[in-house]
Amino acid sequence: MFKKLFPLLLLVPLSGCAGGNWGWYVVDPTTTSGYNNVWFLLTGLYYTVLLSVTAIVISIVIGLLVALPGLSTNKYLRGFNRVYVEFVRAVPILVLILWVYYGLPQLAGIAIGVFWAGVIALALSDSAFEAEIFRAGIQSIDKGQYEASHSISLNYYDTMRFVILPQAIRRILPALGNQLVYMLKMSSLVSVIGMQELTRKANELVVTEYRPLEIYTILVLEYLVLILIVSAGVRWLERRMQTDERN
Fold first, then answer.
1. Domain membership flag for residue 7
2. pLDDT of residue 5
3. Contact of 45 with 184, CB cutoff 8 Å
4. Residue 41 placed within a domain
5. How many CB atoms lie within 10 A of CB 96?
6. pLDDT recorded at residue 244
C-alpha cells in the first residue's frame, strides 16, 4: 500500500500541470507511465540514505580518533592532527571519489565496488570536519570537569567516556546534524561512478524521457523532503538531550 500511495502523496500537486510546452506527464502519478517513472526515481532513496548513514558513522569514529591527538600536549600528535585535517580538507570531494574508485584498487591491489568506494571517499572527506567539530566541542568543556574526574581517580579513557564526551556531544549535536545533511547532499556526487542513488536514477530517466526540467524538479523535491525529515529528527534529538540534561 505504501509503495502505491507515497508517489501519489508526494507528486499529486503536479498532476494538473501537464499541458502546453511542459512535460509533467512524465512524472504524473495518475498515469501508469508517470507512476512507474516516479517510483523509479524513488528507488534511489534507499542507497542515498544507506550510503550517507554508513559514511557519517565511519567519519564520526575517524574524526574522534583524529581529534584526540589534537588535544595532546605532544607536538608530534598535534602535528599529525593538523596535517591530516588540512590535507583531507584540501582535496575536493569529487576528486577523492574518483581517486578512491579508480586509483585505490591499483594502489592497494584490491577490488572496490561503487558503494564502498563512495562510503570511503565520503567518510574520509567528512572525517576532517568531524575532527574539528569534536576538538572544538571537547575544548569547550570547563577544565574543572577534568579536575573533578581526576579527584575521583578516573583515568583518561573513563574521563572522556563518562564525563567529557557526553557533555561535548550535547554541544556539538547541531554541527553533527549539519554534517549529516551535508553528507546527504554530497552523496549525489557518487553518481559519477555509477552508484544507483537518487541523482543517478534521475540522470538515467532524463536520458530516456528527454525531460530534464520536470525530472530534476522532482529530484530537488526528493532531496528537500529527505533533508527536512533529517533536520526535524536532529532538532528532536537535541531537545530530548537537553531535557535529559535538565532532569
1. no
2. 46
3. no
4. no
5. 19
6. 61
The domain that holds 190 is classified in CATH as: 1.10.3720.10
143's grid cell: 577544565
How is residue 141 annotated by DSSP? S
Q: Using CA atoms, how far apart are residues 8 and 10, in angstroms rounded to an integer?
A: 5
Residue 229: φ, ψ to 5° = -65, -45
Distance of CA 224 to the CA centre of its chain: 14
For residues 187 and 97, the answer to whether their CB atoms sit within 8 Å is: no
Range of the domain at 146: 46-196
Q: Does residue 10 register a pLDDT over 60?
A: no
DSSP state letter for 99:
I
Beta-bridge partner residues of 19: 22
Distance, CA of 232 to CA of 177 (rounded, Å): 10
Q: Angle 227-232-237 (CA atoms, 0-180°, nearest 5)?
A: 125
Our count of domains for the chain comes to 1
Q: Is residue 20 part of a domain?
A: no
Question: In whole angstroms, how large is the CA radius of gyration of the chain?
Answer: 22
> pTM of the full predicted structure?
0.85
In a domain, 68, yes or no: yes
